[in-house]
Write a structure and sequence with these properties.
The chain is α/β, with parallel strands linked by helices. Helix content is about 40%, strand content about 20%. The chain has three domains: about 80 residues, Winged helix-like DNA-binding domain superfamily/Winged helix DNA-binding domain (Arc Repressor Mutant, subunit A); about 100 residues, D-Maltodextrin-Binding Protein, domain 2 (3-Layer(aba) Sandwich); about 100 residues, 3-Layer(aba) Sandwich (D-Maltodextrin-Binding Protein, domain 2). The protein is built from twelve helices and 14 strands. α1 crosses α4.
Length: about 325
């Protein structure tokens, strides 16, 4: 095939077809109707002199040639995107760059929200799309569809650059109205208390803490599962259940809700959160600037122990109450 006969825009459609393996879904990815995508596939078949996608039963599978094209096509598109978006004279004050970021609600609450507040002051024209962590997040980084991924170390791709952001430990939260002596409980007793557990995706999926407990053959009594870290503390309030959370998140919600912090009797290795991006963006000036902002905010985060201590100090401070002054209606005096 002669290169001058090939419309390079077809690579975008080809990448979508190779990824989705479905004409309709591929068309949705590149904003083409089903009929237009079918026409594009027919054109690609003529150019490559290969079926590329074949129907087997109720699904479509890649031909051997198509399988070989997956990697090279993605690499060409990544390099093209990197070349197009690279800017030698980047100015955050005037930039209108758009970034997509996949992160858990935990990472968003304790880190990303602060980053976006600071960046708004320095780069008011930048826009962001926050996406939930999913099994496809790593694949989206690989394919160049996602700018940044913030996730636990070991849950990201080994093929692309990562930057260590912070560590966190684990602490339980219990409702302040629940007076059970959790501090003196044995591990076995603790495991038999009702737990609220965060779980993403499929029923067999497990987060970092759950995977570690499974290696020790510990099995918690799970009474409630929820797809979000920020939901778990709310589901503890008013019950005798507990929730195992990262310490920074537990301390934050202990300041907002009637919760107390309870040490977890099992020593879990610290959670390490990292930032990942595609290697094609490593020298992109806008990406470099934003990565610097992320690392700067992360470096100023207080330690987990410091957040716990700050939370306990706030709880220890006497709270003001109001009482009505006898004989004088409508007026109050602060006690």
């Amino acid at each position: 095939m002669e290169l001058h006969q090939f419309d390079l825009n077809l690579l975008v459609a080809l990448d979508a077809l190779l990824t989705e393996r479905n004409v309709t879904h591929a068309g949705e990815r590149v904003n083409l109707s089903q009929s237009a995508m079918s026409g594009t596939l027919a054109r690609l078949r003529r150019l490559f002199q290969d079926q590329l996608l074949m129907t087997v039963g109720r699904r479509m599978v890649l031909t051997p040639l198509a399988e070989e094209l997956v990697g090279p096509v993605r690499e060409i598109l990544r390099l093209a995107r990197g070349a197009i978006t690279a800017k030698t004279n980047f100015n955050p004050a005037t930039s209108t760059h758009h970034f997509s970021i996949a992160a858990s609600d935990y990472a968003t609450t304790i880190l990303l929200a602060d980053i976006l507040r600071e960046v708004k002051l320095k780069a008011p024209g930048m826009t962001f799309e926050l996406l939930p962590i999913s099994r496809r997040a790593v694949e989206d980084v690989e394919a160049g569809r996602l700018d940044f991924l913030i996730g636990p170390e070991g849950y990201v791709s080994r093929r692309h650059p990562t930057e260590r952001l912070f560590e966190d430990t684990y602490t339980c939260v219990a409702w302040t109205g629940n007076h059970a002596p959790y501090e003196s409980m044995t591990v076995e007793q603790f495991m038999n208390v009702g737990h609220v557990m965060v779980r993403f995706g499929a029923a067999d999926a497990a987060n970092y803490d759950e995977r570690f407990l499974r290696t020790l053959k510990y099995k918690r009594r799970i009474e409630v599962t929820t797809p979000g870290f920020d939901l778990a503390p709310h589901l503890v309030v008013g019950t005798d259940r507990i929730a195992l959370l990262t310490t920074r998140l537990a301390a934050k919600y202990a300041q907002l809700l009637p919760l107390r912090l309870v040490p977890f009797p099992v020593r879990i290795p610290p959670l390490v959160e990292v930032l990942q991006w595609h290697k094609a963006h490593s020298q992109n000036s806008a990406h470099m600037w934003f990565r610097t902002q992320i690392k700067d905010v992360a470096s100023r985060m207080p330690s987990p122990a410091a957040t716990v201590e700050a939370s306990r100090r706030r709880h220890a401070q006497p709270r003001h109450t109001t009482r009505r002054t006898p004989g004088r209606r409508g007026r109050h005096r602060r006690a």
